Amino acid sequence: IVTTLIVLSPLITRVSRNIWINFFFSFDKSKV
Hints:
This protein is mainly α. The protein has one domain (1-32). It has one helix spanning 2-31. The mean pLDDT is 86.
């Protein structure tokens, strides 16, 4: 379980960051 968490940790952070950036960009486009 611990190893799986360590392996998935960077992937989850990367995916969440991508989603956050996409959300932010879409919000900006909507604003403009």
